[in-house]
Amino acid sequence: MAISTSVGVGGAAADDPGLLTAPATAGRGPRLRLPRSPKVLIGLGMLGVFLLVAAIGPWIAPYNPNRSFSTTASFPQPPSAAHWLGTTQQQQDVFSQLLWGGRSTVLVAFVAGLIATILSVIIGVTAGYRGHLTDDLLSMLANFFLVLPALPLLIVVFGFLKTSQGGHDLVIGLVIAITGWAWGARVLRAQTLSLRNRDYVDSARIAGERGWRIIGFEILPNLTPILASSFLFTVLYGVGTYTALAFLGLVNPNHWSWGGMLFYAQVAGAEQSGYWWLFLPPGIAVALLGTSLALINFGIDEFINPRLRAAGLSRRRARRAGVSGLPKHFVLGFTPVIRQDDLPAAGNPPAGSNSQSWRSGDAR
Fold first, then answer.
1. In which element (H, E) is residue 32 found?
2. 108-to-31, 236, 237, 260 alpha-carbon distances in Å
3. Which of the pair, 144 or 344, is modelled with greater confidence?
């Protein structure tokens, strides 16, 4: 077994460009290899379904979610051909409520993620690039919001909102974003501190470029994966927070959302009475939406960290070539890499062969 200790930028070997870039074509430079792992594709597919439901859900809902189909029945009806997910205690169609509630939940989460990401960029990148007193003041502001208890603060804020505003998705998303931007700002500040003294930034500064142009054209493009990860994390935070607020009854009860459906299920005592169709559909929808965002975030982590990408490529190459012997648990600080020149030209490797090479990774 050959041991190779050559380390390139970011923990990847400089002599193995296949881990970072695709082969160059005639007249073109090397292209960056994007993650193609199954978890990323599954996450994007699931998120696409939720976005589609949020866009057309109210149009394809079979009934109005507020319509009551009976004035005499006082118990929720189980799923049937007329009502695929049953009815509520007020004889309202649960499936229609699920389709209507998806738009509100997705819209609030993405509004909160977008606004929080913008605040993170403005405050975090500015603090990291300017430094000195500006960094101290903006860092103190971010630390103040980090230590604030978000959910109790949101409960107090929503207590002062009017009933009509309690059902306004943009207002709710803005309020949630105010409590969710500080984490991303701290991460962006730390990354900006490591970029502001790079040679290309110094060259732009010496050339007389303005600060906003250096931030926008030199620093931010190198923070794109971290920005995407911060955005997805904040969207996930928005989904959980909005669902919790609606479950606590702080959102306008006439404004349908998945958290509101859980609130009405709790009021009806669905869990104790066995009315599973009242709480399982919205609960599973929230869980799957969070899972899709988490899977995409894992893919971004793989894109950012060359060691994760190298390990995944090594396993796939080994399976395709029929090479066995890769351990299930890697040694800390080492990334297993199957080099192209070590793989057999075709077919399975000769008996007893174990063509592997190990590269030492950055164990920091």
1. strand 31-32
2. 36, 11, 11, 14
3. 144
